[in-house]
Structures are given as C-alpha cells and as structure tokens.
Amino acid sequence: MLAPSPDPRLAPQEQLSAEDRNACRALLATGSKTFFASSWLLPRDLRDPATALYAFCRLADDAVDHGDGGVDVLDDLDRRLDAVYAGDPFDYHADRAFAWAVHHYRIPRALPGALIEGFSWDAKGWHCDSLDDLFAYAVRVAGTVGLMMSLLMRVRDPQVLARACDLGVAMQLTNIVRDVGEDARSDRIYLPRQWLSQAGVEPERLLAQPEYTPQLGRVVQRLLKHADMLYERSMAGVQELPWRARGGICAARLLYAEIGREVERRGLDSVNQRAVVPARRKAAVLLRVVPELAAYHRGLAVPPLEQARALIESVESCCPDPALAPTAR
To answer: What metabolic or biological pathway is this protein involved in (predicted)?
Structure first.
C-alpha cells in the first residue's frame, strides 16, 4: 500500500548521493540555465533538494514535450510518482533524488501531482480562453514548484506559500510572453484567447501563420503587467524566507522578471525573436539583490490566487503538527 503522506522513514537515502546530485546538476546545466545560475546563490543545504526538485520537474516536462503526449506517457509519470511516494523510486537519478527530497521535507503528493496534471493539459490540447484559465494552468505547472521550494526551506506559513505560488506563476507568464512565436509554431497558444479576440488577433490565424503585429504586442504587454504585479507581490514572501535563502530566490525573481524587460526592449515582438538577457545585464541585475531585499514590499496578507487555495491547504493537511515542520529562520 502506498504511504498516505510523505514520511522521512521512506526516503531511499539519508543524504542525497554525490552520483545523483551530479547527474541532476548536469541535466539542469543544459535544460534549466536560469535556475542553474541562480542556484549557486542558495545555501548548500537548500541547493541539493532544490536541484532534486527541478531535475524531476525538468524530466517530467521533457517526457510530455518530447514524447507522443499520449496517455502512456502520463501514466508512466504517475507510476513514477507513486513509486517515489512509496519509497521505492524507479532507477533514475532524478527519481531517487526527488524521493529523498519529498520524504525528508514532507512535500504532499498533491503538489507534484498537480504539476503532472498541468503537463497533461498540454498533452491533451488544452485551450486557454481566459486569464482565470491561464492562472489555473500556471498554478499547476509553476506555482506548485514555488510551493515545493518553500517546503524545502521548511516554510509552511500559508501567507508565505501564497506569495511563493505568485512567484512561480509570474515566472510562467514570463515564459509565455517570451515564447509566443515558438509556441504558435508548435500549435499552442497560451495567451488568453479572449484577449486576442478583443485586440483583433485571430487565434487560428496566429497558429497558421505566426507573425508579429502591434495588436499582438498589446496582448503581450497586458500579460507582462500581470506578471509584474505578481513579481512585486511575491517579494513580500521572499522577505519571510530563511535569511540564507533570500538572496538566491530574489536573484531568480529578478533574473526572470528581466526577461520581460528584454521582451519590451525588443518591441514586444516574441514571434520573430526569443528574448535572451545578455550576461552583462544579468550581472547588473544581480547587483540589485541586496537593495531589493532591504526595501519594504507590501502584499504578504493578500489572499492567494483562487486556483492555488486547495494546494496551499494540502500542505497544512499533510503536516499539521508544527513540530514536524519548523520554520527555519
């Protein structure tokens, strides 16, 4: 029988092995470059579980993107996740590392389960009609990662978790505005179709013949404004994280938000080009980490995105005893 909740006694290893750690880092060095760069600012005791988390998420995403997207792929991911929570992961570096992380840090299965559910929406040809639809998707494929990262820091306060989810969603919105053309050429649209229609952009035409227009640019700008609002709101949560982790998370936040600024510098055209932040500008952005952490940021008590509420509640249900999940400061 599968364990109903994560249990440190089911972890396949006491500490993450050097072999699994190195394999996961090698995967992220080529597949998740922004995370890989900012992860070096995390303390070692957080860098290892974060690496395990991102490696499993990267492989799950790739399995859907590069597989046939069918039921077999999704069933395989579910079986792998069941095995992780049973303490008997498949013989993959990322699965063993992830099993170590979820049991030691008591990550409820609902979180990676929602992540895989979001991937399944992609595989099934999900349509994004409204901003609420987009938030539902982004909470699953990215907000869950923010929640899991918080649990790796042993932070389980609902207000801080809500802001962590905001940060994950903001990053996903940034991905979407950066990849409009790439997604359209893959027969996908993540911009709300209602917004496109209101702006005079025909979604089916965009899929058939991806091209930049000022009308499309206005939709991109509109989504960037929502991302910026979530980035700003998330900073109130970053300031509540353990002090040793704040720098790395703030750096990731600033680097991702800068992608949006790069899209703007390129005239909001993310059809004919893909915004990449130059190394020199990344270095300049990182100089803003300390001032950003020192500034006062509002929004900690703002209610969570409605689409994230049940996932945040699953954390409390998983580990209600504060003694089992102390907040590290």
So the answer is: Carotenoid biosynthesis; phytoene biosynthesis
- In the predicted model, is pLDDT for residue 235 greater than 60? yes
Q: Domain check: are 138 and 55 in the same one?
A: no
C-alpha distances (whole Å) from 292 to each of 84, 174, 239 are 38, 20, 10
- Whether residues 91 and 134 fall in one domain: no
Q: What is the token pair recorded at 132?
A: 């609420």
Q: Does 152 share its domain with 194?
A: yes
Same domain, yes or no, for 179 and 295? yes
Instruction: Report the C-alpha dihedral over residues 100, 101, 107, 111, rounded to 10 degrees.
Output: -100
Q: Domain span at residue 226? A: 126-317
Q: What is the CATH number of the domain that holds 250?
A: 1.10.600.10
What's the rounded Cα separation, in Å, for the pair 12 and 316?
24
Note whether 76 and 134 are same-domain residues. no
Best CA proximity match to 231, nearest among 311, 142, 157: 142
Among residues 187, 179, 207, which one has the least CA distance to residue 274? 179
pLDDT tens digits for range 297-307: 999 999 999 99
Six-digit token string for 239: 């300031």
Rounded distance between C-alpha atoms, residue 118 and residue 135, angstroms = 11
Distance CA 309, CA 329 (A): 25
Structure tokens at 217: 């640019």
One domain for residues 278 and 174: yes
Write out pLDDT tens, residues 120-172: 898 888 999 999 999 999 999 999 999 999 999 999 999 999 999 999 999 99
Number of domains in the chain: 2
CB 182 within 8 A of CB 189: no
157 plus 204 within the same structural domain: yes
- The answer to whether the CB of 238 falls within 8 A of the CB of 324 is no
Q: Tell me which range, 17-26, 55-64, 278-287, is most confidently predicted by mean pLDDT.
A: 278-287
